[in-house]
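Table 4 source record.
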Amino acid sequence: MIDSSDRKYIDLLRGFSITRVVLVHLGLSWFYSPYSNYIHAFLPILFFVSGAVSFNSYQKSHNNTKYLLKRLLSIAVPYYLILICAFVFVWFIEKRLPVFYLGELVNWLTFNVSAERDYMPYPMGQIWFLHALFFITLISPFVFSLAKKSEHLLLLPVFLSVSISAIQFNSDITPYFNIFSHTLYSPTSNLSFFVFGAYFYAKRSVFTNNSISFLLISTLFISIFLSSKVNPNDLFDMHVKHPDLFYVAVSFSAIFLLLLFKEPIAFIVKHTLFITPFLLFMNKHSFSIFLLHSLVLNIIHEWIGSASQSLYIASVKIILTFIFTCILAIPFSFITNKIKNKILGRIDFS
């Protein structure tokens, strides 16, 4: 089980990671390209903490169906609600509903990022994380069941996932993961972060500062070695779309770095004005902020114009996006939790 200190740090990490997502979509990744592209290495923190929290929930649950439905609803309900909001917005502004067909409706309902943008008012490309997390969560009971025999067996799916990313580094194998128009390579390659998050906190006593330092140095060495094999003209985000071993190694380095410096980071955050409540707010409303900020950003972009016009306009867009997203996240989270709990309350899990 996760103790209170680790749980608080997990919340801070999720809050930091969601903030990073918003800032990247606001232009942080190209601010000082190509070096700023490496900010993408911190994205797997979301999978890491989700795995830790999910495994903790799995251990507490005596009913796999209830565990699975609760986790899936936490992803699906806010997503479906944001789709409704997007269509309502189009109707309100343009007095029409987008024309679509059954195939596209199925794509939307199944988090398919390849959905036609001409029919969808919401930027589907940005929900690839939810697509990956949904399918990872779907198989998580089977993965977590390995821990009933030995928690060390959780390392098997981690090893398998990393091995697949190693193959991807040398040749594109993503077409082999296409099933019914869904690209399942991303869930497969990001599974390593999710399951390792579960394993790390399940075997927390094993991970001393010395062992974390060893893992950090090892992954950094692999990252540096692989960087010599990568085209220097490639941006790091080219490795993000279809995670290969280079991306996985750099991302694990970022995770180990944050775990190793947990105490000083937590101390700095605690003694820096407004940082702790801000990150805890971002954590509490993480799914809402993740989904809302893209819609808010698009609206503000249409209202103000391109951020490339001036630093002033870019700053205004960043501030307004954060303010309106945070304001809307509060009722959005309240409504989604109400809907989720209403659904769960109507199901008999006995």
